[in-house]
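tool_call predict_complex ligand=zinc ion
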Amino acid sequence: MCGLAGEAGLFLCPGGTLEQNDRENLEQIRRNAAEWLTRRGLDALLGPEYVLMPGLCDVHVHLREPGFSRKETIRTGTLAAARGGFTTVCAMPNLDPVPDSPETLEPQLELIRRDAKIRVLPYGAITRGEQGKELSDLEGLAPLVCAFSDDGHGVQDEGLMREAMIRAKALGKLICAHCEDDALRAGGHIRESALSRQLGIPGIPPESEYRQLERDLRLAEETGCAYHACHLSAKESIGLMRQAKKAGLNVSCETAPHYLLLCLENLRDEGRFKMNPPLGDREDRDAVLEGFLDGTVDMLATDHAPHTQAEKAGGLLGSLMGVVGLEPAFPVLYTALIRTGIMPAETLAERMAFAPRRRFGLEAGEDFAVFRSGAEFKLDPEAFVSKGRATPFGGMRLHGACVLTVMEGKIVYQEERG
Ligand SMILES: [Zn+2]
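tool_result ok
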């Protein structure tokens, strides 16, 4: 088991699997953080009851603005991110307007300039209006966006996806795919299973994810495009990704805390258990976790997807898909994986800070966040600064509450002392 107590920093764990330059980064961040904290009389935060991490990075969040500010805004979403220890997030393009050209991206850029509390990098849409019919102005968008995605929808047309990959490769940009075959999804709400049949709720088979992933990996091989698969949830997907990496393809993937730690057995008929892709069975969960531990899954992303309370009040059948993740993510993973000794803390630093920035070519900075390892707390969604409240982890007793987030030497979140 990884020793978490020790000298200032706490996250360095002998026997971990960090790349040499990440190990150096980590040491550099630790030194700077120690100096920064000491200078401000906050050196108590260097004690053994705290965990110091690099500023976290989430490449998959829905900030909902412009277009859906009733669900979340750039301001509330980035405050929630800072409160979760994040200093960089990438914002998905299922907005109104959909950013499919520099002109339609501009309203979002304006809001980011005005309201963002941390770094926000927007995605550009792969197709016009995320309609899957014709490609966006990829060339015009490329200098302004972190990557391309039609998140919320799979790109159904193989020819269009091939063309997108060819052009993204020429532009040096990642294609980030929400893998979902509409014909296989067929209007389902939760994973197709004995439970879905028992509840009489239309099910979603895992094929709807992994068949499209299989197609995309073939296209990535054919085109040489750098490809990233979003929120993988099925064991078959993890197997495909492992194979593709072995074959040397330029591919990566992410998963979210709920796919790592929950499965159908945890499902309740409440909106906070409904997301897309849906929770799989126990074998899926175990395969996703195995992939996360061995590096097949490169990074953790929360797929923070807030909705209004009314939109999440319709149980499994009547609620919209999506749960919030920015505030719960670190405590949930810290409690489930680090405290239990399943994963060294430095590997979590790799999955939540270094790997996403490296893959997406994002500025690293010397950001850091401090979490309280000792005291237990109850995750209370009513206390979130996000407008969203729906999380399957609500009410759980956790460790690892964020006490301080520092970006470029400035405090972007500090816990209020009650
Ligand atoms: Zn998605």
